[in-house]
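for the recovery benchmark. tokens below, seq after
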């Protein structure tokens, strides 16, 4: 049995460092200047075959400060953020754009980039709902463009090593998975995490990481049961998910913006178990406990901030003319969004985007 997520070349044992060039240099444009963009762009600059060409923002000062900090050659800015993004997408020198806006803007911005002929790496979650994800996939396919949801955890050597151990049979058959990710986030209705218009809440921001371990070990479930807490603004502050599989196998996942936790994952098998280091979305260790044999710890050194691995896969795929990564294929992204749609239906969680029809790329 092989791991559920195909091993990307950059994470294979003995692979060259992900900063090493694999082909022609790609010219990048960046949408947004927030914290995650700051971190990812620092790793873009590590790649030998990447050139940070431009950054776009609603705020001129933020755009210029970001460009100065990271060495971007151009800035695009406008109080109407979409106007700034569209001008950047019209730049013929840009090959690929990285989108780091709040979730609620992902569909509109990614759609505009694809319509302008740009390859797209978009932060998770790719969209607010499955309908939006399906439309972006259709548009990317129709235009022969690369599109990928930026779930960096999927490309990390530690994650693939852990899943390879699980699927090797060393620990027997998988029985259950437990994973959690949470932290107490101070309430601020202006912060994207608590802003319903931005797609705020624990589900879209955090759930993909515990899900990575459940889907990697067991695949998609037969049944999902969800319970959660919505605040007065209708934003999900916390949820617990139980995923049920054939043979009685289960995964129990917790996401929270109101409580701290161990932020790790455990995979229990019939002949042993495995636990990730903290945090489960970027572990530097995995602990392996075979029944009747000596336990061991395996360690992994980061490269940059470890976004380098997803950036290498994006670069490799574009260089090779691929439109989707085998590690995060489009069908898997859409199926994940459908799973999250089902969770939201159980929680009574709604977003503004849900009421807007998606018709061939237009609202």
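predicted aa per position
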């Amino acid at each position: 049995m092989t791991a559920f997520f195909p091993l990307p070349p950059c994470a294979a044992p003995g692979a060259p460092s992900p900063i090493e060039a694999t082909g022609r240099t790609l010219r990048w444009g960046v949408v947004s200047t927030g914290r995650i963009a700051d971190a990812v762009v620092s790793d873009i600059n590590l790649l030998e075959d990447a050139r940070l060409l431009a950054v776009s923002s609603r705020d001129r000062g933020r755009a210029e400060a970001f460009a100065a900090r990271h060495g971007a050659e151009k800035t695009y800015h406008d109080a109407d953020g979409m106007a700034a993004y569209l001008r950047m997408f019209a730049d013929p020198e840009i090959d690929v754009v990285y989108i780091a806006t709040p979730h609620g803007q992902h569909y509109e911005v990614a759609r505009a980039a694809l319509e302008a002929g740009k390859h797209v790496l978009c932060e998770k979650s790719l969209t607010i709902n499955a309908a939006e994800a399906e439309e972006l996939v259709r548009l990317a396919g129709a235009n022969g463009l690369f599109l990928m949801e930026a779930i960096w955890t999927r490309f990390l050597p530690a994650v693939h090593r852990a899943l390879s151990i699980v699927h090797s049979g060393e620990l027997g058959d998988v029985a259950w998975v437990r994973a959690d990710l949470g932290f107490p986030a101070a309430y601020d209705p202006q912060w994207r995490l608590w802003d319903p218009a931005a797609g705020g809440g624990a589900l879209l921001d955090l759930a993909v990481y515990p899900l990575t371990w459940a889907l990697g070990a067991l695949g998609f479930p037969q049944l999902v049961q969800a319970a959660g807490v919505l605040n007065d603004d209708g934003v999900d502050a916390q949820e617990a998910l139980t995923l049920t599989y054939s043979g009685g196998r289960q995964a129990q996942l917790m996401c929270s913006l109101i409580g701290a936790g161990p932020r790790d994952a455990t995979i229990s098998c019939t002949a042993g178990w495995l636990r990730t280091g903290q945090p489960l979305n970027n572990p530097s260790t995995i602990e392996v406990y075979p029944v009747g044999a000596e336990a061991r710890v395996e360690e992994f050194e980061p490269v940059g901030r470890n976004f380098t691995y997803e950036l290498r896969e994006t670069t490799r795929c574009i260089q090779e003319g691929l439109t989707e990564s085998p590690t995060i294929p489009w069908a898997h992204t859409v199926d994940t969004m459908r799973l999250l749609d089902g969770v939201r239906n159980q929680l009574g969680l709604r977003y503004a985007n849900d009421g807007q029809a998606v018709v061939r790329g237009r609202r």
